[in-house]
Amino acid sequence: MSALGELIIYVIYFILGLLSVVFLILTIKSKNSIKPWTLIACILFGFLLYCFKSFQNDKYRKNQLSVVGVYYLTNYPDCDSCYIELKENMTYIVINKGKITEQSIWHYEVGGDYWVTYLDNDRHQLGYREYSYEFYRLKYPNIWNK
After folding, report:
1. How far apart are CA 25 and CA 15, in angstroms?
2. What does DSSP assign to residue 100?
3. What's the whole-model pTM score?
4. Nearest to 109 by CA among 62, 64, 59
5. In terms of Cα–Cα distance, which of 23, 17, 22, 21 is closest to 41?
6. pLDDT tens over the chain, length 146 residues
7. Three-state SS for 109?
8. Residue 78 CA from chain centroid, whole number
9. Long-range pairs for 101-108 at CB < 8 Å and ≥24 separation?
10. Cβ contacts of residue 115 below 8 Å, gap of 6+?
């Protein structure tokens, strides 16, 4: 079902974009009597495409913000009480006893049936190997309820 959901999103982009282009071409090539209607349709489908893209961007941003917080690491080398803090500006820091031991960038990737938080230019994943964690505290725990 997840792959079908991804396909549906691409189909919606394709249909809205195609209809915008078709009505733009019809506006350019049509006679004066139907030109206003084809122009209105072109603008309407262009606006719908913009709204759909904005909705998708907002959804992606909420997904990113849903993982912002503090994760208490369990397997970080030479560290018993380290934690990693993911920040809104797409950076993270690893803190050991009040000192920053590592800092870099992170990004969030989501597909139909998976989500992954990549650390340090895709070299590591949060929740895997040295970045494994048991406990966490999210900054925006109820972001989807807003």
Report:
1. 15
2. E
3. 0.68
4. 64
5. 23
6. 466 777 888 899 999 999 999 988 988 887 777 888 888 988 999 999 999 999 988 888 888 888 889 999 888 888 878 899 999 898 999 998 888 888 899 988 877 677 888 888 888 888 888 888 888 888 887 765 55
7. strand
8. 33
9. 107/64, 108/63, 108/64, 108/67
10. 63, 108, 109
Asked if 94 and 84 touch (Cβ cutoff 8 Å), the reply is yes
For 3, the token pair is: 């792959």
Beta strands in 5-141 (DSSP E): 69-73, 83-86, 91-96, 99-110, 115-119, 124-125, 133-138
Distance of CA 76 to the CA centre of its chain: 27
Indicate left, alpha or beta for 90 from its phi (over 0: left) and psi (-120 to 50: alpha): left
Q: Residues for the chain: how many in total?
A: 146
20 exposed, middle or buried (CB, 10 Å; 0-12, 13-18, 19+)?
A: buried
